[in-house]
Amino acid sequence: MYFGVNIVWNGSNRVGKADEEAEDAEDALMELLRGLHDHAMLAIVWDVEEWLFASAPLESHWCDQPLKEAVRALQSEAKSERVVLNGDVETALLDSAYGAFQDGEEVSAVHVATLLQRGMIDADDAEQWRDETWRHLPSKQA
What we know:
This protein is α+β, with helices and mostly antiparallel strands. It has helices at residues 20-34, 48-53, 58-61, 67-80, 89-102, 109-117, 123-131, and strands at 5-9, 14-18, 44-47, 83-86. The protein has seven helices and four strands; from the N terminus they run E-E-H-E-H-H-H-E-H-H-H. Helix 5 packs across helix 6.
């Protein structure tokens, strides 16, 4: 709209005069804003790490399933809750798994395999984890 406004002298003041395209854009924006009273159009914006980990650990979001499946499920959940995520779900999950791995916390075999595949850890790191059974998250699959 800004680019469609010309400043003109009206005889006593400088005023903005919108061209037809700017007026159409303003009308469209006002229509969208009028619709905001409908809560179905509202969304909540969350930082992805905060949304994921504020009240639940990594393994409640991603443990035994492939990373892509976990990401799809979480994106679907966010959409159904009308949550707009600021950040990337996959990156947040990987960073959390890597942080847990580096800190000596429990991680799953899927986490380790994915970190290894992505080059975030090396084969020696993965082998050391395999030997440290107290760091293995139990499988959620029955």
